[in-house]
Design brief:
Blueprint (H helix, E strand, L loop, with lengths): L3 E5 L6 H12 L1 E5 L18 H6 L2 E2 L12 H17 L3 E6 L2 H9 L9 H8 L3 H11 L1 H6 L5 H14 L24 E5 L2 H17 L2 H7 L13 H8 L5 H26 L3 E4 L5 H20 L1
Parallel strand pairs: 1-4, 1-5, 2-3, 2-4, 5-6
Helix pairs in contact: 1-13, 3-4, 5-8, 6-8, 9-12, 11-12
Length: about 300
């Protein structure tokens, strides 16, 4: 990981285009750390980089996994590590870019082995209502209940599964995070945490959601067939399916996706502020070219320090 640099931040902050220009400037390649851009298809819904951006430098882990396949942090860690090793084997720098906090943390801190899903137990848990799952998690592990999205059935089921299969609190497993790859070392996770002023970020999110509808995201979702449980968590997928099913108007659909995306960005900001030691950069205070220059200098300085 010596020649790896991280650029992380919330959705719609502009990190994708910024990172591509930084990578072009310092002759690096990009490894995506986005939980949904890794899937094939649904390019508009997942805000995959435009063709022009992809042509600037080599991008890895975008459109790699079929929509019907499950993805998790450990699978991502293994795949991303192989991509980074391959980039390094050609004497190139790697820039990890994304907003999926757990995937980033999987690379910087490794993962604690977790039990494989038990089909019988999972079937039993999936048959329970959200209220029943919440109550059971509160009873078994109140701390995990406070940290888990209580409206996300998949995460509630997994937290309970860990408790019941291991006999340990899911909160002590820390969502699968293990000890740092090199205890006490911060050199493994040097990078930049980019963000924008709240009003500007919200405006960018609203504009991007409107743009994806103009570009045809409804037809994109209509054409999607089998979607795995993890892929089905994409923001906007449920809302557009409800639109197609006549359960809401397009105005309601757009509004709900904008709101859900803003909430997601807020969670991302909280995660990166508390879970990483990356240097913060408010992009609202810089032009695009100034941001590229600022990050490029720090990336090159980081690589130089690691090679001393």
């Amino acid at each position: 990981m010596r020649r790896t640099f991280f650029i992380v931040g919330p959705t719609a902050s502009g990190k994708t285009e910024l990172a591509a220009d930084v990578a072009q400037e310092i002759r690096a390649e990009i490894v995506s750390a986005d939980a949904f851009q890794i899937y094939q298809g649904l390019n508009l819904l997942t805000a995959k980089p435009e063709a022009e951006t992809l042509q600037k430098v080599a991008h890895h882990l975008i459109g790699l996994t079929p929509l019907h396949e499950e993805m998790n942090a450990e699978k991502f860690r293994q795949t991303a590590t192989r991509a980074i090793d391959e980039i390094h084997s050609r004497g190139k720098f790697a820039i990890v870019v994304g907003g999926s906090g757990l995937y980033i943390k999987a690379l910087t801190h490794g993962l604690t082995p977790l039990p494989e899903p038990d089909p019988k137990l999972r079937k039993k848990l999936n048959a329970m209502s959200l209220n029943e799952l919440r109550s059971e998690l509160v009873r078994l592990d109140p701390q995990a209940a406070r940290k888990t999205d209580i409206n996300n059935k998949r995460r509630l089921v997994r937290a309970l599964e860990i408790c019941l299969l291991t006999g340990r609190l899911a909160s002590t497993v820390a969502l699968g995070l293990g000890n740092p790859v090199r205890p006490g070392s911060t050199i493994l996770s040097r990078g930049i945490f980019v963000f924008r002023d709240r009003e500007e970020l919200c405006a960018r999110i609203n504009v991007r959601v409107e743009a994806m509808f103009h570009k045809g995201v409804i037809e994109e979702v209509r054409a999607a067939t089998a979607v795995s449980a993890t892929a089905s968590q994409m923001i906007g997928l449920r809302q557009i399916r409800d639109l197609l099913g006549g359960k809401m108007s397009i105005v309601q659909c757009v509004g709900e996706i904008q709101q859900a995306t803003r909430r997601y960005a807020k969670r991302q900001l909280t995660w990166f502020r508390h879970q990483t030691n990356f240097e913060p950069l408010n992009l609202s205070l810089f032009t695009h070219n100034e941001g590229v220059k600022w990050i490029s200098q720090r990336a090159l300085r980081s690589f130089a320090l690691r090679n001393d």
